[in-house]
Amino acid sequence: MTLNNKQTQEDGTQGLVSADQTMSGMPLESIYEPSGDVPDNIGRPGAYPFTRGPYETMYRGKPWTMRMFAGFGTPEQTNERFLKLLQAGQTGLSTAFDMPTLMGRDPDDPHSLGEVGREGVNVATLDDMERLFAGIQLDQVSVSMTINASASVALAYYVLIAEKQGVAANQLRGTIQNDMLKEFIAQKEWIVGVKPSMRIIRDMLGWCTKEMPKFHPVSISGYHIREAGATAVQELAFTLADGLGYVDAGLEAGLDVDEFAPRLSFFFDVHNDFFEEIAKLRAARRMWARFMKERYNAKSERSMLLRTHCQTAGVSLTAQQPLNNVARVALQGLAAVLGGTQSLHTNSLDETYALPTEEAATVALRTQQILADEAGVAKVVDPLGGSWFVEELTDQIEAAATELIKQIDGMGGIVQSVEEGFPQKEIAKSAYDFQRRVESGDEIIVGINRYSQEQAGVGIPTLKIDPDVEPNQIERLKAYRQKRDQAATDESLNALAELCRNPDANIMPAVLQAGRAGATLGEICHVYRDVFGEYRDPGGF
Amino acid sequence: MSKGRILIAKPGLDGHDRGAKVVARGLRDAGFEVIYTGLHQTPEMIARAALDEDVDAVGISIMSGAHMTLMPRIAKLLQEQEQGGVLIFGGGIIPDDDITTLKEAGIQEIFTPGTTIGQIAQWLNERLAE
User: What is the pLDDT of residues B24-37, one digit of tens each?
Assistant: First the structure.
């Protein structure tokens, strides 16, 4: 059986023009294959083990989704950016939250000092979520929310504002990142420890599978692992191992693997080494398909499909000669496309200085549009399939990542190995090795240790965040607390605490009820802190 | 003999600790005694650690955009506890326009992306010798 991607056309991206010929009129097939048998470990696009891509027709059927991550300041400011993006024809949104929201802290919490609205949009209440999506019909868009430790609250608020619009949860399309394992491994945004975090995810998986069948309840993310310093092989191995951890959590929630595995999605980094990144994505699909078939006895091919979002490597950008970053992003974006990504975010040239300006973000989006519409690279499915080099490199990366996953299995699985700090230590080692290679000149970075210039970064415009965002959000929060029914709020938080203490219960209905009653994001997360205990950085370097 | 005691600090809610850890390791390998605070520290916790550990310099790493609030506050607290002589340096995602203001607030140097550990070590050696 081969899978066609027609069913998944969820966005309004324009189709390819004249995909059946080159610029000069040479005829093109959609797929090129050997005349004899296709090797088993490569297969055909859209067929097990999906090395050549999750869909038969790939970008001929549907170009990748150009999904640009956005969020800053107040909910209104980000809403304005969202409406602009939608007017420009984008039908998928991707939300960046600020640090207090991600860490489950209200804006008036002492830990939030100076952070409100800086790195993303601040959402502390149900009202904030409503303002963020004002004027947007939630059954018409697919919304991605990059949020993890406090994801249960963001999801509840999102479901509740949709309900107000008259849109049922089962109509909502989108993704919530909700990948806590990679937080402990790499991004370090947490509230409670590894095991209670996995319990919350288990409950979300259970609830979403029943109530939100069109929604992706976890996006298993290698991006942050790579950005923290992992090699491509480490990124692949730790990410797939995390994925196995979530499959185990779903099974623990009492679900059948084929009930929820098709809703798991992935998110990879695309770094500088062009062919290695392509091979990594191809190896990822093959490995995941095999794990799902052989380890979990999945029956549905949809459970075996690794579908992924990709983002170009923020960490590869340089502050020196920042215009050069446009070239880096274009090459990384090309690698993502040749690797068969389903959606892509391209970074902006100014991101070593601040959140991107609108102009810089537009150049990044145009880079994707040039790849899709001018470069012709999307016309033929997996054009590098069968390349001796790329197939060999795919095998090598698969073998090395498989070895690392075996090591994790040997420790008792990913949850155990994360609690012991194994991936964390491996990544810190790789990050330091890389820095030493840059300093010794073994690793070349143009503009840093070769072709450097004096005063190379000065003078590019950067985005400024209005300093009034923080006091304004605090004022609003206070007003929100004033007008709510305090007794009902307290009661809902107590009910949530009660369910948290019962390991067999599902907490999601109580989170929804707390949101409905008027509890703030920080208050709900305080319940988690109270019941499960706050997690603290073990430190060390 | 140690070239000096350095506190590497991660204030605020920002969890991006790659830079802080690489610099901590690098300075240790360059002969400094390095203490790392770990993540999610308030300015007060950092000032307290600087005092308790009796350090010669404090290096502050911030990627979350909160540097204009948090870095000057740490500098002020260090001054208040009469550690005015402690060197303060910083790094992270910091626009050029903010660097002047931070220097006026008592952050002696800002090392932006692309800086080598060698450059930071050299700066510390020179300033600590003064």
Answer: 999 999 999 999 99
Cβ atoms within 10 Å of A523's Cβ, excluding its own? 21
Which of B6, B18, B29, B119 would you mutate first to test chain A, the one with the most A CBs within 10 A?
A: B18
- Taking contacts as CB-CB distances below 8 angstroms, the residues of chain B near A447 are 114
Q: Is B11 helix (H, G, I), strand (E, B) or coil?
A: strand
Q: Identify residue A179 by its one-letter amino acid code.
A: D
Q: State how far residue A144 is from chain B, nearest Cα, in angstroms.
A: 21
Summarised one tens digit per residue, pLDDT across range A521-540 is 999 999 999 999 999 999 88
What's the sign of the alpha-carbon dihedral A149, A153, A155, A157?
negative
- Supply the pLDDT for residue A103: 97
Cβ contact, residue pair A354, B93, below 8 Å: yes
ipTM of the modeled complex: 0.93
What pLDDT, on a 0 to 100 scale, did the predictor assign at position A6?
39
Q: Residue window 463-492, chain A: list those with CB within 8 Å of chain B.
A: 465
Sheet strands (E) in B25-100:
33-36, 57-62, 87-92
Separation in Å, CA A369 to CA A143, A144, A346: 21, 21, 11
CB contact under 8 A, B13 and A183: no
Say how far apart CA B114 and CA A87 lie, in whole Å: 38
> Which residue in B22, B66, B94 is closest to A118 by CB distance?
B66
Between CA B78 and CA B83, with CA B82 as vertex, the angle to 5 degrees is 55
Tokens (6 digits) for A344: 């892509």
Given a cut of 50, whether residue A206 has pLDDT beyond it is yes
CB contact under 8 A, B34 and A541: yes
Higher-pLDDT residue of A15 and A470 is A470
How far from chain centre, in Å, is Cα A46?
23
Q: With contact defined as beta carbons under 8 Å apart, do A263 and A254 qualify?
A: no
Please check whether residue A229 touches B, CB under 8 A: yes
Cα-Cα end-to-end distance for chain B: 18
Sheet holding B57-62, edge to edge: B33-36, B5-9, B57-62, B87-92, B109-111
In sequence order, the 6+-apart residues with CB closer than 8 A to the CB of A304 are A48, A49, A50, A261, A288, A289, A292, A293, A298
Q: What pLDDT was estimated at residue A16?
A: 65
* CA A146/CA A433 separation, integer angstroms: 29
Cβ neighbour number for residue A422 with a 10 Å cutoff: 18
Q: Is the peptide bond before A45 cis (omega within 30 degrees of 0)?
A: no
Q: How far apart are CA A79 and CA A86, in angstroms?
A: 10
Exposure string for A241-255, b = 16+ CB within 10 A, e = fewer? bbbbbbbbbbbebeb
Residue A46 DSSP SS3: coil
One-letter amino acid for residue A394 of the chain: T
CB distance from B100 to chain A under 8 Å? Answer: no
Query: Hey, is the C-beta of B68 within 8 angstroms of any chain A C-beta?
Result: yes
pLDDT value at residue A214: 96
Record the pTM. Answer: 0.95
